[in-house]
Amino acid sequence: MVDVWFVVATLLTPVFAEYAKIRVKAEKQFNFIVAAGIFFLLSIGFTADFMVNLAGASYIWGVYLFEFLGWLFLLIGVLWAVFAGLLK
Question: Is the confidence at residue 67, as pLDDT, over 90?
Answer without folding.
Answer: yes
